[in-house]
Amino acid sequence: QVQLVESGGGLVQAGGSLRLSCVASGRTFSGDSMGWFRQAPGKEREFVASCNWSGGRTYYADSVKGRFTISRDNAKNTVYLQMNSLKPEDTAVYYCNGRTYWGKGTLVTVSS
Hints:
This protein is an all-beta fold.
């Protein structure tokens, strides 16, 4: 059974940092692009960041560019999202995605 499990969410003050992790099991994603999405209360899920199979190419939503960094460790089948200079508008459930698979999400709450 393929699973993506996110962790690292929590409550942080504005300006703070968090590092999210997404561990994959059941299959390797080393040849696939991986991404992070988020869904804020009352809003649709939106793209946050993605990277190609090696992590050498990265893409970001304009709203997080310069503050968030996506990376991966294929040996650990893990994708990371380093989030710095967090803002209250970053509050959301963050989901990991690879191919057609999704994790259950981890909640990030940024207080003002």
